[in-house]
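Example 3.2
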Amino acid sequence: MRNKVIFALAALGLLSGAISAYVSGQEPKLPPPAFAPASNPYAKGIYAEGIVESYQASGANVNVYPEVPGVITEILVSEGQSLARGTPLATIEDSVQRGTVEQQRAQLEAARALLAELKAQPRPETLDVAKAQAVAARASLKAAQDTYEKQKRSYDIEPRSVSKDTLDNAENAMKVAAANLEVAQRQLDLTAAGAWVYDVENQQGQVTALAQQLAASTALLGKYTLRAPADGPVLAINVAVGSYVSAQGSYDPYTQGYLPLVVLGTAQGYEQVRCYVDEILVHRLPVASATHATLFIRGTDKSVPLEFVRAQPYVSPKIELSDQRLERVDVRVLPLIFRFQKPRDFPVYPGQLVDVYIAEN
């Protein structure tokens, strides 16, 4: 009996092992693909990886960098917002520059006041004083002349009536009075003539220089407010209040590089695709007038027909569109730009990587 049980258990084990081996040997049924991968829609087509950009007559997206360094004090727009040209985007701390402008404005006002003073000369009160001094000098001369003439007549009649020393002193006093009158008259003429023309011109130059300096400082102060250089939507804001920025942009801790503070698109109904064709395939491209291409959205079965815009006629080193790193091998590509109307039934965003097929000759 015991042997029968052992044989039964052994047979059962063998059967279980055989069933397990059969089941494990079966290949699992693959699940259906989440989406159909893009396939070449042309009999002969060239594949290229593309990146969606804002449609521009030249270049790509509008990258806004500050012209002055400083700390961001306020962000005035939000991502996705449509802007008009000149709309303020953000402000940079400007207390030092604002103080400089106010100081230069005060210096300009002082220089203008001095220029006005020079042009207003002679001052009436100063001219009256000069006239009074001239009258007093003329009266002094008249008194000195009368004294001298009296003493001279007395001396001529009777030399002993007036000493020679007294007569000489009277004559000298008359000459001194004449000289004083000449000085007073010249001072009156100088006062009446007003400011010297060279002084006026020099002060005018000072006013002009200070005005230009103030204009330059005011223009520099205006650069502490970043403004939209063109109409279009805000695609990205890469800075926060309190961040320090420079002409290189804003430091990004994720990429450990510098990014533009604000990225703007265009207000047109088009987007563009920039794709790079390997140099060994360039000769297979059709002429511009016969170029046909199709864009495929990755992860979907969506496609969009493309319109050829231009080729950048310069074969350049290939770059990785995702992070702009240079290839290890010197592979060269020709940039092609296509445009397309924004689809209404599904979104396409600038910066999105897409698949592009270009029909061959």
